[in-house]
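Data availability (excerpt). The following record was deposited with the supplementary files.
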Amino acid sequence: MDLTIPEFKHTASLTLKGEKDFIGGLGCTIIDNKIIHFPEKKVSGSGYFIELSPDVSVLIVDLTLNEPMRLTRMPSEEDFWIVYYDMSDNLNKHFIDNVKHNTGYKSKLGFAIIDSRLQSSYVSAVGERAYSLRLYIRKTYIKNYFHGAVLEKDFKNIFDNKKREMFYYGHIDSRSKVELHNLKQQSMNDSNYEFLLKSTAFKLFGYFLERLKIDMSNTGLFLEKDLKAIMKTQDFLMSNLLAPFPGVKILSEIANMSISKYRILYENVFGMSAVSFFKKEKLVLANKLLKSGEFKTISDIAFELGYHKTAYFSSLYKKHYGDIPSSVFKSKTW
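Predicted structure:
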């Protein structure tokens, strides 16, 4: 984390009154006890806060930083979960226990469940739109949805107030992404925006409960150590895109877990298999190399990426991008 970036500390709360250090500290103005306008000097944009019930609140933040800033949420005395969706156009950095996660619409990790008692920092690029929705859900309220053996087996650590671990990071499910995308197109100043936000928030809450039941019953808790292990293999894949896919066996050994557990957790986090991710990122790199002007022929690029047949590479590229490589290829001129 770049500690030279100015830091703004605040706390999150289930009530608008509890958000006073965030609102007041940034010099925001409040309209109708729900619309938050950020000061133009530091931050452009707006926010929207609604208490859906005494146990559930929703906060939309749609802003653009006009100067570098590190937004650090301090641990809260209130005991709730922050269910976090990042639909920003660019990649943002989210730090939890000094572990960096890239978030945003283009990121593989745009969804998180974070304990309110755990500190986190958020860094967005200056001049880029950052758009996120946060559901604040009291833990005792969530607990009412789970009973008996399932709760005791799968959730006993989550509801222990002495535990302050971040335990889940992953992709935004497709249904939630559609709802968030539609909401993102709306103006907070529209007369029906509050209705749209409430409708979206309740849908997201429902999808979240479904996902929680499925994920926890199938895989148990997604612990931070597991996330770090998965991310370690992710870094390995991204550093070796020019080589053939290493295989799940090698990746599971790097993560120090069984092949079956690795496959489940990887797909749980990224929404696709490791090999699918590798193939996708290899083609993203191919697109960059085609436009780089550093190669004489497309065959050179195919060979660089480990494809022995240019025709095969071209067919994969067309399937992914909908066009042939020559449509974007820039040849080396010297």
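Summary of structural features: The chain has a mean pLDDT of 83.
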